[in-house]
Structure formats: C-alpha cells, structure tokens
Amino acid sequence: MVDLKTQFERIKDDVNASIAEVINNSNFINGSQVKEFAKQLALFNKVSKVVPCANGTDALQIAMMALNYKPGDEIILPVFTYVATAEVIALLGLKPVFIDVDPDTFNIEPTKIEQKITKKTKAIVPVHLFGQCADMEAILEIALKYKLDVIEDAAQAIGSEFTFRSNKSQFAGTIGTIGTTSFFPSKNLGCFGDGGALYTNIEELGRKAEIIANHGQIVKYHHDLIGINSRLDTIQAGILLKKLPHLNEYNHKRRIAAAFYDQVLGALSPVKIPTRAAASTHVFHQYTIKIMDGRRDALKDFLANKGIPTMVYYPLPLHHQNAYKVYNTANESFPVSESLSQQVLSLPMHTEMDEEQLTYITSNIIQFFK
Length: 370
Description:
Blueprint: H1 4-25, H2 32-45, E1 49-53, H3 56-66, E2 74-78, H4 84-91, E3 95-99, E4 121-124, H5 136-146, E5 149-153, E6 161-163, E7 169-171, E8 178-182, E9 196-200, H6 203-213, E10 217-219, E11 222-223, H7 234-243, H8 247-265, E12 271-272, E13 287-291, H9 296-305, H10 335-343, E14 344-347, H11 355-369
Parallel strand pairs: 2-3, 2-4, 4-5, 5-8
Antiparallel strand pairs: 1-9, 6-7, 8-9, 10-11, 12-13, 13-14
C-alpha cells in the first residue's frame, strides 16, 4: 500500500545526517529541531501557531482539553471515520454525536448537522477524509449560527486547500477554531514513528495547548493546568524537517497516480472513482473507489492473489463498533455510511508508484470485471 523504503532512499543522506545530528547533540526531548519544525510547518500552512505532539490522537485530545469541555458536553462528528476521532471524545467523558456522510466525498454531510445540535453541543469535528476537505464553508456557517467550535481532524489531508466563495483559500486544519494532524509513517508527511501536531490562529488557545501537552506546566515542576505528556521527539522532528520541503512534490506524485487510476478505472461501470469536492483540492492520502455491484470483497481477494494489497477503510462505521454502540441511544441508522462500509476499497497509493505498477493494478481490476 505504501513504499516508504524507496521514498527514504531518495532522501536518505539528508535524513541520516539529521538523525546523526540529534544523536551527537543528545538532546532527544524538545531539541531545537522540534521548535524549527513547528516554525517551518506554520510557514507551510500559513497558520500562526503549530504545537507538535506525540501523535494525531493526542492532538485531538489536547485540542478538546484546551477548549475546556466538561463531561456530558456533546461533540458532533462523522460516523464514517477512524475510531480516534470518537475515542478521545469518549475518554474525556464527552458524548460523541454521529452524523452521516456525503456518499461521494465521504466527508461529514453538513445538511444533517443542525438537526443534531442541542443545548449541550459544543463543537463540530469535520474529518477531512482520504485527502480532501469537508465542506468547511457550510460547517463554519452552522458553527457561527450556534456559537460552536470547529475542530478539524486533518490527519489525512495535509496540503489540501479549501477555497471559499470569496476565493479565499486555506489549508486543511487551519480553517476552524483549531486543527489536528498526524505524522504516522504512512501519512502524506510521515515520520519514522508516531508524531502529531495542532494548528490554530488563536494565539492564546495555541499557548494553552502547548502547556497541556507538557504536563500542564509553564515553569518546570509548576503545574498550572491538568495536562498530559505528549511530545514530538527530536529525532522525529529532524526527520520531518527533511521531508517537509518535499511535501508538495509528494502530493503532486499522488495526484499523478490518481489521474492514471481515474483514466483507466473510470470506464468500468461497476467502479466509481473518487469524487473531487468542488471547493477542495485532493492530496490522495488514499485512493478509494466504490464497488457498486456487491463484489467488493471478491475483488479484494482476487487482487490479493495477484500480489496487490488493498484496504477497506472502514469496515464498520462507528455506531456499529461495540465500544460506541452505547452512544447511539436512538438506535439510529446511518444508511450512507453503512453502504460505504460494504462498497469502499482503497488501492495502493504512495509517492513511488510508477506506470508499470499502476498498469499491473488496473489491468487486474479490468480482468476481474470481464
């Protein structure tokens, strides 16, 4: 699914030198590379504050802690997403409120949000799934109307841009109240372990997130807030510093691979290629097709036998997960997400794909449907 080794080979001298520098200096926690990476990522995303942390899940938790939510507060999120989005809500004693998604973009459906807002609702968490932004214009309008925070889960969409009707553009994660991302190795910008960050243009909120991520302390051993221990270690920051200048190139290569898939697979009637949201660019963290004839699992098995890996993101929507059924108090169905879980299939997508690989993958998909 992802060829991290070949990607590393192209920049290994820079990366190895960066790792060696950290080891030689032996400043493994909060070294200068962490601060420099936060600065460079802020410049890339055109956002005023970046707070590095240990992983994308922690980033979501820190964001909600910084916004001072209380047990019982309700947080709106899509039901078709990775569990981390709901996980931190539940861990903090908050209530996840599920919303169905758009059948084409897979992102939260804004027209379904207002009916779920109550006096306890505090925030909307749009997840920019698979590499493109949710409809942030509509979401921000709802948030403004009801005085809600918007916490962007941008773990899969770094570098994606949303354009408003005014022609103003902003990067995923920098549009709402606060945004989060992940540097898990398979992400478009991935480190060699776990890593994450928060973005915000609200200086006070960013500073509070920074304090929470460091045990709630400003001065060592003086704890002003309840915090957690969530740090991006210096080696990972050094690696990310070397990879960040390549991010636009990486995303461009993903788009080239996606265009190849589009051209070949778009002619197959049982296959629906990814829809591009009208207002967002797509960075193709995943290239996710829909198989419309009920043979998704058969195709997955067929491709596996040909040595072609695929993944189903996600086989169960959140309201069908054992840990989260309790939050679906009205026993509500979410038909779009339930259908998608039976239809979606993500194909190999990474920066090192060449025409030979793409041809092999697509020719085997064509062969299956003959």
